[in-house]
Amino acid sequence: MAKKSRTLSLKERGLTNFEAIMWLFTRLSALGMYALILFALIGALVMGARNNMNFADVMRWAFMPNVSHVQSTDLQSTDAWATPLWRLTASALLLLAAAHGVHGLVVIADDYIAGARAQHCASVEHCFSGCDEPHGFVAHLDFVNLTMDDRRWTMFHGLSSIVYRR
Questions:
Q1: Helix/strand/coil for 146
Q2: Which residues, in sequence order, are bridge partners of residue 152?
């Protein structure tokens, strides 16, 4: 008697290739956030946090490496904490967390939406393709402001219409 295979293909599970990619993205973005937090925590300890900061300040830095989080501590100089490396780390952590969270909200909303038309409007493919909405998925990221030095990138209605201002 031959045993049946217990594995199902993506089509047999009802997952499209896009849904499988987004499932993988969710797992990888979570791992990426863990890696960035660990990187910031180790970086803080190397830069002297173990002697000049309490545990709450170190954790605050680890979850968002921003120089303003260490200005109220006993550090002599915050110059090492304000380098472009930490700005990029903070930006990467913020963008990964936002993308991970938005995808999670879309999945949760999809679980609770019952009507066929409503499911189509809330589906992830619909959001990315932008069938009824000119800016697609990124339109859900309204009023996001990223500031780096003297440049200001303001995103109105998502990434499809970036306006550069000085």
A1: strand
A2: 147, 165
Residue 108 phi/psi, 5-degree rounding, is: -65, -45
Token pair 């990426």 in the structure block, residue? 32
**pTM attached to this predicted model:** 0.61
Of 155 and 132, which is predicted with more confidence?
132
Give the count of beta carbons closer than 10 Å to the beta carbon of residue 55. 8
Query: What pLDDT, in 10s, does the model give residues 58-105?
Result: 888 889 888 887 777 877 888 888 889 999 999 999 999 999 999 888
From CA 80, how far away is CA 86, in angstroms rounded?
9
How far is the first Cα of the chain from the last one, in angstroms, to the nearest whole number? 73
**Distance, CA of 166 to CA of 164 (rounded, Å):** 7
13: left (phi over 0), alpha (psi -120 to 50) or beta: alpha
Query: Please, which residues have CB within 8 angstroms of residue 8's CB and are 6 or more apart in sequence?
Result: none
Judge contact between 95 and 105, C-beta under 8 A. no
Q: Which of 66, 60, 58, 68 is nearest to 88 (CA)?
A: 66
